[in-house]
Amino acid sequence: MDELPRILALYDAGQLAEAEAACAALLAQTPESAAGWALHGAIALKQNRFADAVEYLERAAALEPEDIELLTNLGMALYGAGRMSDALYAFKNVLKRDSSSAVAFLYVGRCRLAAGLLSDAAGALNAAITLRPAWPEALDDFARLSLAADRPDKALVMARKALMSEPGRPSSLELAGYACERIGDFETASAYYRDLIASQPGGAVIGSLAASLQRMGRHSDALSTYAQALESSPDDAVLRYGRGSSLLALGRLTEGWPLYAGRFEIGANAEGARAKGPRLEKPPTAGMRIAAWADQGVGEQILFAGLIPDLVRTGAEVALECDYRLAPLFARSFPQVTVCALTTPPAPELASFKDGRICLSDAAAWSRRSFADFPRHTGYLSPDPQLVNALRQKYGAGRAGRPLIGISWRRADGAVMSDTKSLPLAQWGPLLHVAGATFVNLQYGDTAAEIAAAADKFGVRILSDHTIDPLINLDAFAAQVGAMDLVISTSSTTAHMAGALNVPVWTFLPVGLGSLWHWFLARDDSPWYPSMRLFRQTTRGDWDAVLDAASGALVEFVEAWPNGASGKDRP
C-alpha cells in the first residue's frame, strides 16, 4: 500500500502511462485494494477511456460504497460512456451523501439535458451555480440549456459570465458567438469567433466566422474566410456549401453551382431514393426518361421551376416530384411533364423514369452559367384562367379604373431570418395612403387583427378573400396572384409566385440575413423574374427608405394606370 502515494504523485504530474503501469502492478499483488481500483479508474477517466474507467471504478465502489469521490468519478465515467441513466443514478447517490456537491448537480443537469428534460436540467444546473457562482463549466452548460430552450438571450448572459470568470475560454466564446447568431447579432458573433480563432484556429471555427459574415451580407469577406477554413479542412462539406452560396450571391455562377450541389452531403435537403437510375452529371439527351425532384421550400421550388422548360427542350421525357400543393399548378403549367407529389415512397409513375435523376435546382449548372443565360420569359406558370377572371371581377366590383394591388408582409414562424425579412403591416402607411388603388390581402395565416388595426390607423380598406388559403391551395392562390395588377411583397412565396406568373411585383429585401443568395447583390431587378423590381434596405432594420421609394413609385404607377385596364392590358 506504500506504493499508492508514488502512483498518485505520477498521476498528479501527468505521467499517466507510468502511473497506470504501476497501478496495474499494485493491483496484481493486492486485488482487493479499493484505493488501487479507484486510482486505476481515475487514470482511465483522465484518458477518456470511459468503459475501462467504469469497470475499475465499479470494482472500487463494491469495496468502498460510501466513498463520495469514488462515486463521483464513477458517475463521470458512466456519463462519458453514454450511460445516462446509470450516471444519473450514481450522482443521485452522491447527493444523498453530500447535498452540497456542485459536481453532482452539474452532471445531474447534464444527464437531464441529454434526455431533453429542460426544466429538470435547469433546476440542477441552478443548484450547481448557486453552490459555485463563477464556475465556467456550469455556466457553459446553462448556456447550452438556454439554447435548447430557445433562449439565446439567456445563453449569452451565461456565456459572458463564464468569460468573466475565465477570459478566452474557447467553449464559452463559441457559445457566446452562437447565441449572438441566434439573436441575429452577427457583428458581435463575428467578434467572438475572431477571439476564438486567435486561441483555437481550425476550419470549423473559421467556418463559423465565414457564416456570420455571410449572414451580414458580406459575401466577399465570407468567401475569403471560407477559403481560409478550407485550407485546414478541405473535405468539410459544410464549408464547401457555404462557399458555394457566397459565390452564387456574388454572381459567380459557374464556380458556385457545383459547391451548392454539395448541400446533399450535409443532410440539408437530403437526397432520398427519389427515383431509380444514375445521377445525371450532364444534360439529358432526346429520348431519355429522367426524374427530377424539387427541393427546399415552396418559394425555391417555384424559383427553380423556371428550369423545367430547359429540360423539356432537350427532348428528354421528364417526371417531376414537388410539394403536393404545387402539383396541380405545375401539371397545368408543364403539360409535357409527368408531375407527382413528393411522397415517401415515391409515386409509382416514377418507376419508368430511370435513365437519370437530378435535383431540379442542380440543372441550373447547365443552363444558368451567367446572367446572360436567364431568359426574358413572360411567365412559366399558368394559373386557372377562369378563376383569374372571376377573382378580378370579384375584387374590382364597384372599383372600376383602380388597379388591384396585392400585398404580403411577413413570415410568421418566429425565426430570426423570418423576422428580418418581415415588414409589419402597421408600417405600411406610406403605401396604403396612396389613393386610387384597391389593396388585396395576399398574406397567409390569421391576419384579421393586423388588417383591422391598419384600417383604423390608415383609414384604408384591405380586401381579404377567405375562400382562398395560400397554406392549403396554392393553385387557387396562383389565380389570386394572377388577378393582381401589381404585387408588393417582402421576400416570400408570394413574391416568387408573382414573378413566375409574370405579374409585376415589387419585392422588399433586408440587408444581410434574409436577403437570400438568389436575390444576388446590388441589383434592383431579378434575372429569375423579368417582372420583378427589388427595393433593398441600405441600413439593417431600417425600412423607411424602402417605403419612401416604393410609395413614390406606387403614386406613379396608379397615376399612369388606364381606366378599365384588364389583367392582359397591364403596362
User: First CA to last CA: what distance?
Assistant: 97 Å
Helix/strand-derived category reads alpha/beta
Count of DSSP H/I helices: 27
CATH class of the domain at 385-569: Alpha Beta
Major sheet characteristics: 7 strands, mixed
Specify the CATH architecture of the domain at 385-569: 3-Layer(aba) Sandwich
Q: Please bin the fraction of helical residues.
A: 40-55%
Unreliable stretches (pLDDT < 50, length at least 5) are 564-571
Which descriptor suits the 3D outline? Answer: elongated
Averaged pLDDT = 92
Task: Indicate the topology.
Elements: H1 3-12, H2 16-29, H3 34-46, H4 50-63, H5 68-80, H6 84-97, H7 102-114, H8 118-131, H9 136-148, H10 152-165, H11 170-183, H12 186-199, H13 203-215, H14 219-232, H15 237-249, H16 253-260, E1 289-293, H17 298-304, H18 308-313, E2 317-322, H19 327-333, E3 338-341, E4 356-359, H20 364-367, H21 385-396, E5 404-408, H22 416-421, H23 429-432, E6 438-441, H24 448-458, E7 462-463, H25 474-482, E8 486-490, H26 493-501, E9 505-509, E10 525-526, E11 529-536, H27 544-560
Parallel strand pairs: 1-2, 1-4, 2-3, 5-6, 5-8, 6-7, 8-9, 9-11
Antiparallel strand pairs: 10-11
Helix pairs in contact: 1-2, 1-3, 2-3, 3-4, 3-5, 4-5, 5-6, 5-7, 6-7, 7-8, 7-9, 8-9, 9-10, 9-11, 10-11, 11-12, 12-13, 13-14, 13-15, 14-15, 15-16, 17-26, 21-25
Characterise the protein shown here.
By secondary structure, the chain is of the alpha/beta class. Helices cover 53% and strands 9% of the residues. It is built from 27 helices and eleven strands. The chain has a seven-stranded mixed beta sheet. The longest helix has 17 residues. The protein is elongated. The N and C termini lie far apart (97 Å). The relative contact order is 0.06.
